[in-house]
Amino acid sequence: MAKKSNTHVKPKKKMKKSKKAVLITLIALLSVIALLLIAGGVYLKVMLGRMGKIDPNDSGVSYVTSIEPDPLEPDFSGVIVDDPVEINDAVDSVNSIAIQGNTKVITNILLVGVETDVGSRDDPTNYSGRSDSMIILSIDKYHKTIKLISLLRDSYVAIPGHGYGKLNHAFSYGGFDLLAQTIEQNFRIKLDQYVAVNFKAFTIAVGAMGGVDIVLTDAEINEFRVNHQEVPVKQNEEGLCHLNAEQALYYSRIRHIGDDWGRTTRQRTVLQALMTKAKGAGIGTLNNVLYEVLPYVSTNMSESEILGYIANSPAYLSYEVSQMMLPDRDEWYAVYVKGVGSCLGLKDPTASVLALHHFIYG
Question: pTM score, two decimals?
Fold first, then answer.
């Protein structure tokens, strides 16, 4: 985890706002994969055949072999035997915390929003860039919950083979394999599967879904206005707005309200809104989403793994959803590192990682 040597620690304050566009995010798994059963039928093989056109392994990175999910949703009743997750709260360092991975009832998948270079952001096949949005999607089939954990991009971490730096740099250095190693080393969570989208894939997906409905505050609506964006229109007194693809992307990028914590909260809000809309979408709409988006989604899942999620998707869409951010607002201090910039250091890395494990496995 972060070391304080050769760094200058500043008092806790707002992080410097990035001037670069933050590319997001989020339709990733549940609008593309977990919905496949509803959209499947005779079109399933055609849809899956459209995958695999993007090679996220151009740099020669070898990806971790994935664990295939059960083909059908099992009935987990009573105590789960032979599936223990022991969390030792008495450890005194991150390295002493046992690494946790998938279990019989819990599957963790990394959702990645990739920031591509300015000149190539209209290319939906370009995945060379930093992972500016990282969300662990944790599916708990025993408690019937889905947990969304945002890992903040500016977290100061050890990157294997590259010293210390920001978490979002790992993907640009070595793709998912290095990012997964970085998360495993610093947060003691082993991730085997990922789904990534870039700027263009996000807008294609949200557009194919016909936009998304989200409750916006007056301050969020004003962000559209002052930055010369198409301003969302309130549909009721609660502030419910219908966002098209470009508006949803801009909403996911807002950092002036709540800094990166507010931004990651908005990303998860978009994901949940897409899940809600998918529940009531027709077969034609979902088939269109799949047909338009699958060629541009980067993933290391095999066809058989996707089929496993297809069988379980109706159950997953009914699960209760909870959220977490790491670090949380009271868990960090500002670190300035020469050559890296402003970073987030964890006040108590051991306590933060244990809290993450309890949230996922507790």
Answer: 0.71
